[in-house]
Amino acid sequence: MDFSAHILAAKTALHLSAVPEAILCRSEQIDRIIKFSKDCLLERRPGSLYVCGCPGTGKSLAMEKLKGLLSQWAVEAGVLPPDVASINCTTLTDATQIYSRIYHSLQPGADDDRSVGYQQLKKLLSFNRGAKKMQLLIIDEMDYLITREQTVLYELFQLSVLKDSSCILIGIANAIDLTERFLPRLRTFSCNPDVITFPAYTKDQIFAVLLQRLSSLSVATFHPAALELCARRVSAASGDMRKALYACRTALDLFEAENKSKSTEPEATCLQRDQFVQVDHMARALAKVFRSPVIETIQALPKHSQMVLCSAVSLFRKRKRDAPLGELNKQYLGFCKTTGMRPVSSQEFSGICQLIADQGLLGLSTAREDRLRKTKLQVDHDDVVFALQGVRFFRNSLL
Predict the structure, then answer these.
(1) Which domains, ranges and CATH numbers included, belong to the chain?
(2) Does the CA dihedral 139-142-147-149 come out positive or negative?
(3) pTM score of the predicted model
(4) Phi and psi for 277 in degrees, rounded to 5?
(5) Mean pLDDT, each 10-residue run in order, the chain (399 residues)
(6) Are 64 and 71 in contact (CB under 8 A)?
(7) What is the 3-state secondary structure (H, E, C) of 15-83?
């Protein structure tokens, strides 16, 4: 394998979207989630579970694993597999939209424009009203449903205790005390969920996960000391595995640029010292991750400016060269439609792009017509992803 191909393989292995066969250091939490779900299916009884923990601790990854394992187990056990509705609440513009989103996920043939309320959803989830299978509702970023009276959250958890209900509810959020702080009456309603907490990753756990990610590569890429430094720094700061993966990809970028400038030799398959990502590469990468002016600038931008940058990332993933401003605007309008945000006018959009360009984040040429001006992303795609991945609104759009 040549040098570029090997670096690409390493970056792919370290990407957030790469789901490992086995999820290390989370077996206790995953086993409890699976046991809860299996028990509900076997006994055909409803139930609720609240999964919590800081960002980057493996909650969403565990849910992806659950969906695959549960379907496979149901077939082997001779149990009807559940219908699954998996909703990320960051895509909702109003908390009450959750009812329609769940309904249409479970009834894909229904009219998508039809608004559905709590009573209609409750009817759908009742065995007495026609439900034949258990219904697994996975509600990610549940704290987005917090309102003054918490009516929506209370009603969702009540779905799991109603007579003849087929609902298995798994709510996910970062806050460990969400149910106690915002939903104190759950116990009164007899629908207090079981709680499973995902702790921050320790140094040893981060190191183990990084080794697992890199184990599929035919050639060693990182010096062990570099991985140890990454694990130590990230665990001390937050225990967020996403930051560890980002730091490793950044270190790979530095390593790749350095080797290309040193030599024209395309092969990098022998285990020599200068063919490892070294501690100095990782130290520079970590400095970029935790103290990056670019990332800080992106994080400080107004929301629509961040949306334009997100749109640019999506656009330039598909094409390496520049693109007309009109095409970027089209991408932005699509993003607004997907997220339910009201777009700014064409004139305001041009002004936003100019402001982003003035900050060095976007290249913007001159032309007789605004829509024909050439645009080009002036920062690394990963910088935008890392800067905004902690903002719930953008997370799904950046994957």
Answers:
(1) 27-198 (3.40.50.300), 201-291 (1.10.8), 297-398 (1.10.10.10)
(2) positive
(3) 0.71
(4) -70, 120
(5) 81 88 92 96 95 93 90 91 93 92 87 80 82 90 90 95 93 92 90 95 97 90 94 91 95 89 54 70 88 84 92 84 92 91 92 93 92 91 75 68
(6) no
(7) CCCCCCCCCCCCHHHHHHHHHHHHHHHHHCCCEEEEEEECCCCCHHHHHHHHHHHHHHHHHHHCCCCCE
